[in-house]
Write a structure and sequence with these properties.
This protein is of the alpha/beta class. It is built from 9 helices and 8 strands. α4 links the parallel β3 and β4. It holds the Pfam family Ala_racemase_N.
Length: about 230
């Protein structure tokens, strides 16, 4: 298993373009498996669940950057603010306000990505494109949230179907660059997972989330509905 992880990481790295961040999605995998990836030089890890992120963070080296990539319930905000390096799943006003409130209490600024439901799928989280402007304007007004870009999990489809969604995300990303301010910037475009990250990079992704492509098939008994 250890050798498989190392070989997988080498293969994924070889397919990345310069400047693209690789987040190893360690959700449902053990801390030891994550440590194997860490030992190859990986420093960015993604988790779906707040509790699993906190447990791994407590048992792995301090220089890891932990990315929360799964849906975030407002009642879990208190636990994750100040612990996650980047929250990828800011997708609604009430969540923005909850993160703002908790960050203000802790006197910190929390880095977030706005998650867009670019395929308008009922089964996925993310702000619908028609509600994006409202969320953007709210986020821009908050003092303890710093928006650093966008995230999307696209619908399953063919490579060309995937490409069209990635193009839409890149266009939205570029459009929002016009609204950049001190706490709102388009630095990170988080799109692309194990099966489509190469296409995502071709269309402008700056951060890819790879889980099964590094760690192998996940333990489905441990849950998690958004993957890498």
């Amino acid at each position: 298993m250890e050798n498989d992880i190392i070989e997988n990481i080498e293969r994924v790295r070889a397919s990345l373009k310069e400047g693209v961040t690789l987040v190893a999605v360690s959700k449902t995998h053990t801390a030891q498996e994550a440590k194997t990836a860490y030992d190859t030089g990986i420093r960015d890890f993604g988790e779906n669940r707040v509790q699993e992120l906190l447990e791994k963070k407590a048992n792995l080296p301090d220089d890891i950057k932990w990315h929360l990539i799964g849906s975030l319930q407002t009642n879990k905000v208190r636990k994750v603010v100040g612990e996650a390096f980047l929250i990828h799943s800011l997708d609604r006003p009430e969540l923005a306000l909850a993160i703002e409130k908790e960050s203000s209490k802790k006197d910190i600024v929390t880095d977030c990505l706005i998650e867009i439901n670019i395929g308008c799928e009922d089964s996925k989280s993310g702000v619908l494109p028609e509600h994006l402007d409202e969320l953007v304007e709210l986020a821009r007004s908050l003092k303890h949230i710093r928006i650093r870009g966008l995230m999307a999990i696209i619908p399953k489809g063919t490579q060309e179907e995937n490409r069209e969604y990635f193009k839409k995300m890149k266009q939205t990303f570029d459009d929002l660059k016009k609204k950049e301010s001190e706490n709102f910037s388009m630095e990170i475009l988080s799109m692309g997972m194990t099966n489509d990250y190469v296409t995502a990079i071709d269309e402008g992704s700056t951060l890819v989330r790879v889980g099964e492509g590094i760690f192998g098939a996940r333990d489905k008994n441990r849950g998690g509905n958004q993957n890498g």
